[in-house]
Amino acid sequence: MRRATVQACRTARRAPVWNVSVKRPSPLSFTHNQLRSLRSYSGSKRSYFPAAIQSSMHRRNLSLAVISTVVASGAWYAYQGDTVKSAASQFRSFASSALNSAYAEDPAEPARRALLVSNDQFYTAALSGDQPLAKTTDDSDRGVLEMLTPEQATQKLRKNEESYLVNRGKGVVRYDIVQVPSNSPIEDDHAEKIVEIPASVAAVKDGEPSSDWMFWAVFDGHSGWTTSAKLRNVLISYVARELNTTYKAAAADTSLLVPSSEAVDAAIKQGFVRLDNDIVNESVKEVFKAKSRRVAAELLAPALSGSCALLSFYDSQSKDVKVAVAGDSRAVLGRRGPSGKWTATALSEDQTGGTPSEMKRIREEHPGEPYATKNGRILGQLEPSRSFGDAAYKWTREIQDQIKGKFFGRTPHPLLKTPPYVTAEPIITTTKVDPSKGDFIVMATDGLWEMLSNEEVVGLVGQWIEQQQSAAVSTGTSKTWLQSWFGFDSQKQLPVESTADASGEGQRRPIRQQQYDISGAASRFVVEDKNAATHLVRNAMGGKDKDMVCALLTLPSPYSRRYRDDVTVEVIFFGQGPDSRTVEVNQEATAPEEPVKSKL
């Protein structure tokens, strides 16, 4: 099945070959399978006359490939008409006549088309304007799902977007956020915090009463959402507490005043490790003490699931950004070069069982265990080599047996010998940003990096900045957060410097581009969003190819996980902004709050 799925996606761009009957077939000529596929329509007030369309399994456009491979897993989907139109002229004329016949009784009703897929055959049908998006089609409870329109796809992309204007004069002018789920509920999470630090804690420049610590974090959960939710609530607090102790100690020492970079790194690592110890080990002590399944269910949930963590810490005094990563989320710096183009610099390394440096570390820590890393995964199963939770790779076999016997849990892995195999201790990089030149940082879970390279991401943000500037000039409006940037004319290419090896051995290439057979041409990208993070996700899912965007966003969980992961993106813009000591919501790039529904 997986082989068929990949093959269908790889051939998605080949020209479709259709064998279409130019006349609508008589209902009496339907096969048994055709009649079964339409059984649910027979009871409605309007008749639907499908036409069987013979097509090679490996010759269709991308959206149909996505749908057909899911159907092979036991699900049925319907396809929106706009994409069907682009398949072939014969099909366009046939579908049009079929729809006209179906709506002859009431031409005022909006015409919506669906493409039903079963047993390597396609059937066209009409959906009336008042029919729901999903409905039962036969006794096996299979469903028909109408393809999202481009407008509906945009609504879904923008549903969870946020944007904030930072008017504190500390070197950060704006940050944008978006989340697009694939799992239900989404297993990703995120957190942001700005802390004003008085001079008694951290030394400040003459005349300034305080400085700012700014934190941004994204969390890529797996095996559930509970660990990432725990990190959202407390990780920044754990790290800030350790930093507070470190900075206060340095401020009290007249020979130091500020801590060394190594001391700051140690504080961040301590915050990560202490939190993971509380999640994985201290929780077990509390559970054994309480002897309650209810307490076990509450305390052990964040330990049994897992989450990667990517945290950026910006000190407004030093202008240093510390990026701490435990897992395979990634941060990339965008910086304007002398040519006017942007350069992409990776600020983290993907930490998996297949990363050479991580494989070396794990094998040195577990000598005589060749399967400590297998097929790029820890014990052949878990992909990230650093994470929070994931207690099955950290608890001893004895503890796991006790938890399973007294409460609940998994059977220990048969290869488990000398845990822990996974750690939450992060790897930290330090980068000095230059707000006067408009640096920016993109942080994202691996759902984005599966679809776009570092250079594409930085180039897309650069392209987005240019469009925002052009719009501001044409409308005569002034946006203070844009004042750090200057224009670069780039019509046919992304404004980013290309490199010989974009990823390096420590970072995986965007595997979805190969799966979807996507070319690397920048012409496939588009600028349609006011939120930079949403702009990245839209282009990751197809950009100008609205069919692909609609198809990927239409697929429901859990089938969507075969084609896209949860995606969380944050874009932080550095620059010289006003100092009004405020942070305000950027309404034009933030989704409106949904009205509270009344409870009966």
From TrEMBL:
Gene3D superfamilies: PPM-type phosphatase domain (3.60.40.10). One of its GO terms (molecular function) is [pyruvate dehydrogenase (acetyl-transferring)]-phosphatase activity. This is PPM-type phosphatase domain-containing protein. Residues 345-355 have a biased composition (Polar residues). One of its GO terms (cellular component) is mitochondrion. Keywords: Membrane, Transmembrane, Transmembrane helix. Residues 198-574 form the PPM-type phosphatase domain. Residues 336-359 are annotated as: Disordered. PANTHER family: GM14286P, PROTEIN PHOSPHATASE 2C. InterPro entries: PP2C, PPM-type-like_dom_sf, PPM-type_phosphatase-like_dom. The chain crosses the membrane at residues 62-79. The lineage of its organism: Eukaryota, Fungi, Dikarya, Ascomycota, Pezizomycotina. The keyword Secreted does not apply. The keyword Transmembrane applies.
